[in-house]
Here is the input.
Amino acid sequence: MFNAMAQRRTGTTHQGLHSASLRLCVALSLLLLAACGFHLRGTTPWPMSELALRDAAPSTDVFPEMGRALLDVGIGINDGAPLVLQLQGETFGKRVLSVTTAGRAREYGLRYVLHFSLRHEDGTMWLDNEQVEATRDLRFDESAVLATAGEEARLRIEMRREAVDKVLRILQHAKPPAQKAN
Here is the structure.
């Protein structure tokens, strides 16, 4: 009985020391990080509060999603805004990546490209003929053709969303032509 109590007490003391040393290590790590000047970056301010959004002719499928994304990050869409985001076009590509021994496609590579520009109403180009792209691989299953078609449609939507996110990151760092050298 005495031995069991000693083991419990020793185990508790050992756990207490381990816990205290862990706290000490965490505190020292935080102190070192603060001492070296580390801090989180925070957010980058947007160089515009509103812009006009124009679609390509013929219209793109990404246009409504781009509008929603701009509003979600706090950029107003106003046809009279001094900056114009022009969607110039989008393309989807599909190529065979691998084939079966019978010569049938087993895997496809999907590619989505979105072309755009950002210009000021006075005609100066902030971003001229920019493009972003997204790629995905698609395995083709002959026994589940409908499921594969559904997967391709889902991947196309996913690639479109990725392209919108990339455009937003580019817009967030866009500068007027006179400030680009800085």
In short: The chain has two domains: 1-39, 50-177. The mean pLDDT is 83.
